[in-house]
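Help needed: design a sequence for this.
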């Protein structure tokens, strides 16, 4: 991402509804999959400015990795110290090092997302889990994607295929950020009409609206825990690494 976007993320990541809702989704599923566990080894790949890593600390030992030295500098300001400058397509970790990998809106930044998924599988322990989000729908491509240096947006079939081809077993796939999908779609279309300037779509909102949007996303997260949404701005998946090789 551009340096300006990291600075904005650092200011907003703890409070802005978009970030908070996404972080809560991950926390909801971590607790669902690992109830009461606090001794996990977790890789937060593409940790950005570190807000998610801070929250993950309640679940165990967290390594916060990012390709950007600037992102790691912001993460350090949060008091994080297990920091690693890393390329998701060529991770500098031993095989079978982690119980959990968190990959929040990372794959779309990579020229070879399939290589990254294979690396995720390699460094996960047998039985380990990947929790990932990616932006949905090529039709939503806008200056937001340009500013954040995305290579692509995804649909369900594409994400499922790539995750399975990497060697994972899919456990959960759902769209998320569903309630706001029509609003985001309209905003992106209007942005295109007015020139589609490269800028992240983090529209300032009054605190009462920010709280309301966060509450809406928390309701969505509770639904995704039980069912799946057929559309949304984000795609979310949980995938497993097999505990052992299947019998031949």
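Sure. Designed sequence:
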């Amino acid at each position: 991402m551009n340096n300006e976007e990291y600075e904005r993320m650092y200011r907003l990541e703890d409070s802005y509804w978009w970030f908070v809702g996404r972080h809560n989704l991950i926390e909801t599923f971590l607790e669902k999959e690992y109830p009461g566990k606090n001794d996990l080894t977790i890789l937060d790949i593409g940790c950005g400015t570190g807000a998610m890593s801070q929250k993950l600390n309640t679940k165990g030992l967290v390594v916060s990795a990012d390709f950007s030295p600037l992102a790691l500098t912001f993460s350090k300001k949060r008091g994080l110290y297990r920091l690693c400058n890393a390329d998701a397509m060529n991770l500098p970790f031993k095989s079978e090092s982690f119980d959990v990998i968190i990959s929040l809106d990372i794959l779309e930044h990579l020229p070879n997302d399939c290589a990254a998924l294979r690396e995720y599988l390699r460094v996960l322990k047998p039985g380990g889990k990947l929790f990932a989000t990616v932006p949905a729908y090529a039709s939503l491509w806008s200056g937001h994607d340009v500013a954040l240096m995305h290579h692509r947006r995804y649909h369900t079939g594409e994400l499922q295929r790539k995750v399975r081809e990497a060697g994972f077993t899919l456990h959960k796939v759902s769209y998320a950020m569903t309630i706001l999908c029509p609003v985001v779609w309209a905003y992106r279309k209007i942005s295109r009409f007015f020139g589609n300037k490269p800028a992240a779509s983090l529209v300032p909102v009054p605190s009462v609206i920010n709280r309301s949007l966060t509450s809406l996303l928390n309701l969505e997260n509770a639904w995704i825990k039980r069912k799946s949404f057929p559309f949304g701005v984000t795609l979310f998946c949980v995938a497993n690494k097999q505990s052992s090789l299947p019998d031949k």
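Residues 3-240 form a domain with the Rossmann fold fold (CATH 3.40.50.150).
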